[in-house]
Design brief:
With about 575 residues, the protein is α/β, with parallel strands linked by helices. Helix content is about 65%, strand content about 10%. The chain has a 6-stranded mixed beta sheet, sandwiched between helices.
């Protein structure tokens, strides 16, 4: 991927500032006022010294305190106005970038989640985007206000004494050279920091999610070492940043110091031949000393600028990623549920062999078809192609005669419900988890009816706040069977004509499985159902059983037919039957 230039990145960031241009203009106005008042103090010193101490001008002596006070009030008000407005814009910028990134996360295809570590994506939304604030606010303040201050002070110095000013300007090309040298180093180390922070977030997330496994298998030392390694990478990258940033400021100050020493020497020579007055000399030196603060800030701004631009690069990389392809134009209402796989092949990236190889299969409306086979045979892949989480590499899939590619994703997925082994619940109420997404405005009576049909009201009634009880992160407060029944209630409420059951009863105790199986039988009535199951005892009643072997259909038939064939299905069934026999 081509890295964007600093100018491209900044112009793109400004596109996000555009909606708030009025507030942004207020901030710029405040900065302009502050910058214009910067040369006012050294300019006041000349009449103050020459007019009061030398010429004893009474009117000037009386007026000067009020002028200084007015200057301070104007400057302070402008400083507050500019600072508040630019920070308001900066926080809006971060909020809008986060919204754009989150919207892209929701739109990314499933393959992107397979290839990307979750921690890196989270780090982009939390750490990287905050670094952009510096490039969008404090850096802009320094670049705009301090540059204007420098121009103003230099203009005053040129007016006072052009010879001394030219001497001061000799050092400018050297300072610019130092800053440019450091820029490259800072940007590279900033990229390293962001990458390393993503790895830290990933380790943290894995350890928190898997804390029980870590404790049970004694993985504390391993995880601590892994975390220490990643934090060491962050520290090392940040030290590279610190070295580059710390080296630039003293070098710039040294060059400025050489210029100042030379100027003081030349000024004393001019004073001897009356080319400069006391007030003029003090005013010039004051203006020159005042140059060092904005100059220091301008040279120091390079670090947050490069950090911010590297972060902006990371943020835009996510925003620019292609979302799910949705080329379909056809919208269907409620489907009958006929699914046809026509010579379908599919391969995962970097996989040696295809996950599916020339699969042809017709599932009739309302039919229950079970997919079985050894692990890696292609069962889940085949099911994932139906809601178009993935797209076939060859062949096509049709729903009621419509090629899935011609259907809009919204209308296709509105016709499909999913209940999987890994039930996804959100840290919200029981009701919100059942009536999720487009069903969120469902009446409570309908939610209760779905929960009753899913055998879920039996435990919901005993919860502290009933349907309004919070389930905890991913339903941590519920048992496996209870989570499954909530997922079934969600699918029942959706009332979709096509149902995918992915290992829906695995890893449940006998009592929970009895409830879940009864709820599933209610759910499957009148729907086209694709069942993925390892436990063959759960699919004996399926209309047809499809045996997949290395991405191809090896056998198709009812339970008894396949047992009679004595092929792959019979072997799998006998192995499981023997394992289930009491020892």
């Amino acid at each position: 991927m081509r890295h964007m230039t600093s100018t491209e990145l900044y112009l793109r960031l400004l596109q996000y500032v555009k909606p708030y241009w009025r507030i942004f203009a207020v901030s710029l106005l405040g900065m302009v006022i502050v910058a214009l008042t910067e040369p006012a103090l050294p300019a006041l010193l000349q009449p103050l010294l020459d007019g009061t101490f030398v010429h004893k001008n009474e009117a000037l002596i009386r007026a000067m305190p009020f002028v200084i006070l007015a200057l301070i009030v104007v400057r302070g008000s402008a400083e507050f106005m500019g600072g508040y407005a630019i920070n308001w814009v900066g926080n809006r910028l971060v909020m809008d970038l986060r919204a754009a990134m989150f919207a892209k996360l929701l739109a990314l295809p499933a393959a992107d989640y397979d290839d990307r570590a979750t921690g890196n994506l989270i780090s982009k939304l939390t750490f990287d985007v905050m670094q952009v604030t510096a490039a969008g606010t404090s850096v802009l303040t320094v670049m705009f206000k301090d540059t204007l201050s420098l121009v103003g002070l230099l203009a005053w110095m040129l007016w006072l004494n052009w010879k001394l000013t030219l001497l001061a300007l000799v050092m400018t090309p050297l300072i610019v050279g130092v800053v440019r040298l450091v820029s490259v180093r800072l940007r590279n180390s900033s990229r390293e920091v962001q990458q390393a922070m993503g790895e830290v977030t990933q380790v943290l997330q894995e350890t928190i999610d898997g804390h029980k496994v870590v404790k049970l298998f004694g993985g504390q030392r391993y995880e601590a070492a892994r975390f220490a390694e990643q934090t060491e990478n962050v520290r090392r990258s940040m030290m590279k940043q610190a070295v580059a940033a710390a080296a630039s400021v003293p070098v710039v100050q040294l060059l400025a110091g050489i210029a100042l020493a030379s100027i003081v020497y030349l000024a004393t020579q001019q004073s001897a031949i009356d080319e400069i007055t006391v007030g003029g000399f003090v005013s010039f030196i004051t203006a020159m000393l005042m140059l060092t603060a904005p100059l220091k800030r301008i040279t120091g701004v390079n670090e947050p600028l490069q950090r911010g631009l590297a972060a902006a690069e990371s943020v835009f990389e996510l925003i620019d990623r292609a979302g799910e392809s949705d080329p379909g134009q056809t919208t269907i209402a409620r489907a009958r549920g006929e699914i046809r796989f026509d010579n379908v092949s599919f391969s995962y990236d970097n996989a040696g062999s295809p996950a599916l190889d020339s699969v042809t299969l017709v599932i009739n409306p309302g039919e229950t078809v079970a997919l079985v086979g050894a692990s890696g045979g292609g069962k889940t892949t085949l099911a994932n192609l139906v809601p178009r989480f993935y797209r076939p590499a060859a062949g096509r899939i049709l729903l009621d005669g419509h090629d899935l590619e011609t259907l809009t994703l919204a209308s296709l997925r509105a016709n499909i419900a999913l209940v999987s082994q890994d039930v996804v619940l959100f840290n919200d109420s029981v009701a919100a988890n059942i009536a999720y997404g487009v069903m969120r405005d469902t009446r409570e009576a309908e939610i209760v009816a779905a929960a009753e049909a899913a055998h879920a009201m039996e435990f919901i009634r005993h919860m502290p706040q009933g349907l309004q009880t919070l389930v905890g992160e991913n339903g941590v407060k519920l048992s496996g069977g209870q989570r499954q029944r909530l997922a079934i209630a969600r699918a029942l409420l959706k009332n979709a004509p096509v149902l995918i059951l992915d290992e829906a009863t695995s890893a449940l105790d006998t009592e929970s499985e009895r409830h879940v199986q009864a709820a599933l039988e209610t759910l499957m009535q009148g729907r086209t159902t694709i069942v993925i199951a390892h436990r063959l005892s759960t699919i004996e009643k399926a209309g047809r059983i499809v045996v997949l072997d290395r991405g191809r259909i090896a056998e198709i038939g009812a339970h008894r037919e396949l047992l009679a064939k004595n092929g792959i299905y019979a072997k799998l069934y006998n192995i499981q039957f023997k394992l289930q026999e009491p020892g």
